């Protein structure tokens, strides 16, 4: 998926977060975004996912102006094309692991237990499909969130600190998986991270400040 962001500005009430954020991401490209805590990285991803509004500028996805879509159209687009790994996981507590991971397929009316088992195995959670989220470690929960973001082969993957709770070897495996998914499906991957190892894998690393996105770390 191609993504074009032009001069994006975000405020919460009167409090500015960032302005003049511009970014073009090509299909299949992997871009890492780094920046200090509180600078607005999660807010920026939420805007790209049309989960939050922005005050200035525009976001366009494969030529469609995201700002012009109504809520129903935004929800439809998210369901079809987006995989989002939330910083806080947002795993549903009353659904077991396999149900959480299978949810995007269910919403698309394409339930596929074999695909669910495949991604669970890929994130190292084979055999844990029937556990409830409360019975998992933080790193296992993070991998559930990653499996859920990839299960429907989205064209745009937004991942907010997806390796923050993982040991170095599991983190490397998860990054391998995110990158493989990006390559296989011609998806674009935008990764917010504090990890130098994760950022070093990207095609480009951009630094978010209140004034915009600049190259470099
Ligand atoms: N819903 C909200 N209402 C008001 N202010 C908010 C809201 N969400 C975030 N903020 C503020 O906006 C700023 C950016 O927050 P955001 O979560 O995007 O930062 P971040 O770069 O992702 O930080 P971290 O690296 O700690 O995850 C922060 O100052 C935060 O307190
Ligand atoms: Mg954040």
Automatic annotation (TrEMBL):
Limits of the ABC transporter domain: 3-217
GO CC annotation terms, alphabetical: plasma membrane
CDD domains: ABC_MJ0796_LolCDE_FtsE (cd03255)
SUPFAM superfamilies in UniProt: P-loop containing nucleoside triphosphate hydrolases
GO function terms (MF aspect): ATP binding; ATP hydrolysis activity; transmembrane transporter activity
Keywords: ATP-binding, Cell membrane, Membrane, Nucleotide-binding, Transport
UniProt cross-references to Gene3D superfamilies, sorted A to Z: P-loop containing nucleotide triphosphate hydrolases
Cross-referenced Pfam families: ABC_tran
InterPro entries: AAA+_ATPase (IPR003593), ABC_transporter-like_ATP-bd (IPR003439), ABC_transporter-like_CS (IPR017871), ABC_transpr_LolD-like (IPR015854), MacB-like_ATP-bd (IPR017911), P-loop_NTPase (IPR027417)
SMART domains per record: AAA
Name of the protein described by the UniProt record: Putative ABC transporter ATP-binding protein
UniProt organism field: Hydrogenophaga pseudoflava (Pseudomonas carboxydoflava)
């Amino acid at each position: 998926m191609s993504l074009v962001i032009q001069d994006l500005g975000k405020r919460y009430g009167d409090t500015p977060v960032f302005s003049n954020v511009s970014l073009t991401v090509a299909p299949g490209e992997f871009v890492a975004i780094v920046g200090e805590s509180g600078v607005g990285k999660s807010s920026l991803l939420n805007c790209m996912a049309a989960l939050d509004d922005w005050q200035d500028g525009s976001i366009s996805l494969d030529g469609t102006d995201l700002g012009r879509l109504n809520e129903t159209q935004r929800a439809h687009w998210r369901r079809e094309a987006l995989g989002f790994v939330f910083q806080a996981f947002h795993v549903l507590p009353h659904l077991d692991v396999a149900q959480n991971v299978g949810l995007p397929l269910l919403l698309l009316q394409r339930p596929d237990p074999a695909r669910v088992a495949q991604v669970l195995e890929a994130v190292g959670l084979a055999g844990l499909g029937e556990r409830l989220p409360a019975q998992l470690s933080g790193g296992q929960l993070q991998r559930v969130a990653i499996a859920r973001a990839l299960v429907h082969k989205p064209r745009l993957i937004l991942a907010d600190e997806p390796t923050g709770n993982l040991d170095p070897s599991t983190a490397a495996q998860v990054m391998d998986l995110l990158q493989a998914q990006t390559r296989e499906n011609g998806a674009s991957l935008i990764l917010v991270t504090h990890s130098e190892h994760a950022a070093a894998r990207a095609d480009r690393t951009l630094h978010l400040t209140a004034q915009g996105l600049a190259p470099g770390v």
